[in-house]
Amino acid sequence: DTGVSQDPRHKITKRGQNVTFRCDPISEHNRLYWYRQTLGQGPEFLTYFQNEAQLEKSRLLSDRFSAERPKGSFSTLEIQRTEQGDSAMYLCASSSRDRTLIYGYTFGSGTRLTVV
Amino acid sequence: EDKVVQSPLSLVVHEGDTVTLNCSYEVTNFRSLLWYKQEKKAPTFLFMLTSSGIEKKSGRLSSILDKKELFSILNITATQTGDSAVYLCAVARAGGTSYGKLTFGQGTILTVHP
């Protein structure tokens, strides 16, 4: 169990630029989740994949946000035309159905995005 | 819309003290309540509770769920400086495409002084 890996760890970008984050889940986990966490708040759900299928998207995920998991393994989260309000920690988590029933799921260390 | 409220929002104690963190929730089709500890980056799993009245324990930490009152508490006895962290409570729905999706509270910031 090598854990959930996220890249990059930090990203500073200018307003209006596009950014892309990557998440590599634990290899045998078929479920992958993206959350966003701002300072002083708990994580907020963004979207969820089971294998390559995107099963649910939050209303928080505006049309500037898109997520993919093309082969059911790693996932990318892209933000287009970034705004200062997008500054946050973007957390990825993964699980299998059986594991979710017992342990919830495993989070990665996150990508901290700062939009200047 | 699902809702999770934690209290207090922050707590400062000295080593050796006992603390109780609170979590109340409203969720459609409840499946489970989870507690996580977040120190710097990734939240790490503490407990998952699905049945009312059954205490889960791990060392100095324990938690219990009251499904009638829609409430859970997390107790930490004999606190240590290493317990300083944000403690997050989350609820999960049962079934459908929302399976596994968590709704988190704001968290309780616990600071333990030596």
What is the molecular shape of chain A?
A: globular
Approximate strand percentage of chain B: over 45%
Using only C-alpha atoms, the radius of gyration of chain A works out to: 14 Å
What is the string of SSEs of chain B from the N terminus onward?
EEEEEEEEEEE
Q: Sheet bearing the most strands of chain A, described? A: 7 strands, mixed
Low-confidence stretches of chain A: none
- Low-confidence sequence ranges of chain B: none
Q: Cα-atom Rg of chain B, whole angstroms?
A: 14 Å
The helix tally of chain A amounts to 1
Helix/strand/pairing class of chain B, anyone? mainly beta
For this entry, what is the oligomeric state of its chains? heterodimer
Note the gap between the termini of chain A: 36 Å
Largest interface in this structure = A-B, 27 and 24 residues
Fold and architecture overview:
With about 120 residues, chain A is mainly β. Chain A contains one helix and eleven strands. In chain A, a hairpin with a 6-residue loop joins strand 4 and strand 5. By secondary structure, chain B is an all-beta fold. Chains A and B meet through strand 4, strand 5, strand 9, helix 1 and strand 10 of A and strand 4, strand 5, strand 9 and strand 10 of B.
Short description:
Chain A is mostly beta strands and 116 residues long. Chain A has one helix and eleven strands.
Compile the SSE list and pairings.
The complex is a heterodimer of chains A (116) and B (114).
Chain A: E1 5-7, E2 10-13, E3 19-24, E4 31-37, E5 44-50, E6 53-57, E7 65-68, E8 75-79, E9 88-95, H1 97-103, E10 106-107, E11 111-115
Parallel strand pairs in A: 2-11
Antiparallel strand pairs in A: 1-3, 3-8, 4-5, 4-9, 5-6, 7-8, 9-10, 9-11
Chain B: E1 3-7, E2 10-14, E3 19-26, E4 30-38, E5 43-49, E6 56-58, E7 61-66, E8 71-76, E9 85-93, E10 102-104, E11 108-113
Parallel strand pairs in B: 2-11
Antiparallel strand pairs in B: 1-3, 3-8, 4-5, 4-9, 6-7, 7-8, 9-10, 9-11
